[in-house]
Amino acid sequence: MTYLSDEALLNAYKKALRLRLERDFLELLMVELDRRGITFRNYEAEVLTDMTAE
Questions:
Q1: How far apart are CA 31 and CA 23, in angstroms?
Q2: What's the rounded mean pLDDT across residues 28-52?
Q3: Residue 51: its pLDDT value, please?
Q4: One-character DSSP codes across 5-45
Q5: How large is the C-alpha radius of gyration of the chain?
């Protein structure tokens, strides 16, 4: 995953949440986000809020 920019990684995480992909895949993304020091914990609530608004 080192080839992905921080922005692309964060977008992949958000999209994976929206698509309700496998938890194992989400965890791989979360580990990489955490390793890079990118804050991402609040995105799950944001994505779920967006989904209920649709």
A1: 12
A2: 82
A3: 65
A4: -HHHHHHHHHHHHHTT--HHHHHHHHHHHHHTT---TTHHH
A5: 11
Residues 6+ apart with CB under 8 A from 34: 40
Whether 14 and 47 have beta carbons less than 8 Å apart is answered as yes
pTM (two decimals): 0.77
The C-alpha atoms of residue 10 and residue 3 are separated, in whole angstroms, by 13
Two structure tokens written together for 2: 């080192």
What is the residue type of 15? K
Q: What integer is the mean pLDDT of 15-38?
A: 94
CA distance 45 to 1: 24
